[in-house]
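User: Some background: our group keeps a shared notebook of sequences we're curious about, and every so often someone picks one and asks for a predicted structure to add to the entry. Today it's my turn. The entry only has the sequence so far, pasted here. Could you supply the structure so I can complete it?
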Amino acid sequence: MAGLKSILSHSPSVVTRKTGNEYVLVPITNNIADMNSVYTLNETGAFIWEQINGKRCVGDIINAMTSEYDIDNDTASKDVFSFIDNMSKYLIIKG
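Assistant: Of course. Here's the predicted structure to add to the notebook entry:
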């Protein structure tokens, strides 16, 4: 489970494509795209995805969310940890 000081990164086995304001994430297995497991991120998910870079800790990502969306820390924290939990289940992020 990620904590505030955890530093996360994108899995190297996921190809990312940006389409407008959305990101499409395609897992790669044995050098083949798994088109049955494509994930589309909404605006908030895309923002969090952009913040995950292998350098920022989760606390910094939460602070960036509060600034970008003018929301309170509790709401940002719930959104970020929910995103991390979901993406971790599918091995799309690591850390």
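Suggested note for the entry: The domain at 9-94 is CATH 1.10.10 (Arc Repressor Mutant, subunit A). The first helix runs from residue 43 to 51.
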